[in-house]
Design brief:
The chain is built from ten helices and ten strands. The N terminus is likely disordered. Helix 3 packs antiparallel against helix 9 and helix 5 crosses helix 6. By secondary structure, it is an alpha/beta fold. It has a single domain, classed as 2-enoyl-CoA Hydratase, Chain A, domain 1 (Alpha-Beta Complex), CATH 3.90.226. The structure holds ligand LYEYTBR6. Ligand LYEYTBR6 binds next to strand 6, helix 4 and helix 10.
């Protein structure tokens, strides 16, 4: 798929003006550092409004592998440099926004591949969570685990009806990483409900997610959701963009600092968990259960 970036001289470059957060000295490995053209995403920018739409397109489930996550991350950093104002993240599928990490790539994988996958997930989360762009997740399908992570890292969530959303890690005997926990708490109206959800692997329907405050609005069609997404981005005037971006950054700075301090530990936990024979056995059974639905 071709990427189309249109230059938007009307808007000031937020990335130049917002002071970058300190990044730890160590460069974390990623298998995604590539200049290849995008394979799994399409990016369009409306030069009239300054709004970009990044569409996830890795059938069948938009499962997140290292290459795909690298593409999403690079698109966001490119948009920051291209004088863009807001970003809508959505899916080309009519059923699945994202099913989270590509579990097929976690199964019987070597350590280097597991490390590449996890570092790509960390890098993508960090970029999306900290971007000065105004971010909206247009959730037009199921958003599970890493898929929900993309939604809660954005600033605003608009969901279509009759889908599922949530973080299901503890169900499979895994702890939710602290950065994902903090991101979830950051958007939920109550810390108590957030704790309850994440400890019990609660998966919401679109309708119950709206009631709980996990999503902000429902829309009956993708077209309506696009209109609502643009309205959210437009609700911030051009004049206030810089102050807005700095305020957003201040709100998120502590979570980002904690992440940087724990980044290696977080990776170590993932690697040791995924290499346990019991975890691999479970993953094999879990993947079979997905196939058995057919
Ligand atoms: C198990 C957890 C392992 C490690 C986590 C480690 C640490 C926690 C850190 C937290 C960070 C994030 C972690 C993750 O994201 S783990 C991923 C967890 N995701 C899931 O459990 C979702 C599983 N999928 C589903 O529940 C359903 O597929 C879904 C999304 C509700 C859609 O349902 P449906 O419309 O009926 O579609 P199918 O189930 O038929 O799926 C279509 C197609 O997609 C394949 N698929 C689905 N999910 C994944 C996946 N996560 N990875 C790879 N492939 C996936 C499925 O097998 C089908 O493929 P096919 O070729 O058979 O068509």
């Amino acid at each position: 798929m071709a990427t189309r970036i249109i230059h938007l001289p009307k808007y000031s470059r937020l990335s130049c003006l917002v002071k970058p957060l300190t990044i730890s000295a160590r460069t974390f490995a990623t298998a995604t550092a590539s200049t290849n053209p995008p394979q799994f995403t399409t990016l369009s920018v409306d030069d009239r409004t300054g709004i970009a739409t990044l569409t996830l397109n890795r059938p069948p489930a938009n499962a997140l592998n290292a290459l795909f996550m690298g593409e999403i991350q690079r698109s966001i950093t490119d948009l920051e440099k291209e004088n863009c104002r807001g970003l809508i993240l959505t899916s080309s599928s009519q059923r699945i926004f994202s099913a989270g990490l590509d579990l097929k790539e976690c199964y019987k994988a070597d350590v280097a591949s597991l490390e590449g996958l996890w570092c790509a997930l960390q890098n993508l989360w960090r970029t999306l969570f900290s971007t000065p762009l105004i971010t909206v997740a247009l959730i037009n399908g199921h958003a599970i685990a890493g898929g929900c992570m993309l939604a809660v890292s954005s600033e605003y969530r608009i969901m279509l009806p009759n889908f599922k959303i949530g973080v299901n890690e503890t169900m499979v005997g895994l702890a939710v990483p602290s950065w994902l926990m903090d991101t979830y708490i950051n958007i939920m109206p109550s810390r108590r409900i957030a704790e309850w959800d994440l400890t019990s692997s609660r998966i919401y329907s679109s309708e119950s997610a709206l009631k709980a405050g996990l999503v902000d609005e429902l829309a009956s069609s993708k077209e309506e959701a696009l209109q609502k997404s643009a309205a959210f981005i437009d609700s911030f005037s051009k004049r206030t963009l810089m102050a807005r971006a700095i305020t957003k950054q201040q709100f998120r700075a502590e979570i980002l600092r904690n992440f940087e301090q724990n980044r290696q530990h977080d990776l170590d936990i993932y690697l040791s968990t995924m290499q346990k024979p019991s975890m691999q056995e479970f993953l094999g059974e879990y993947l079979q259960s997905l196939d058995a639905k057919k």
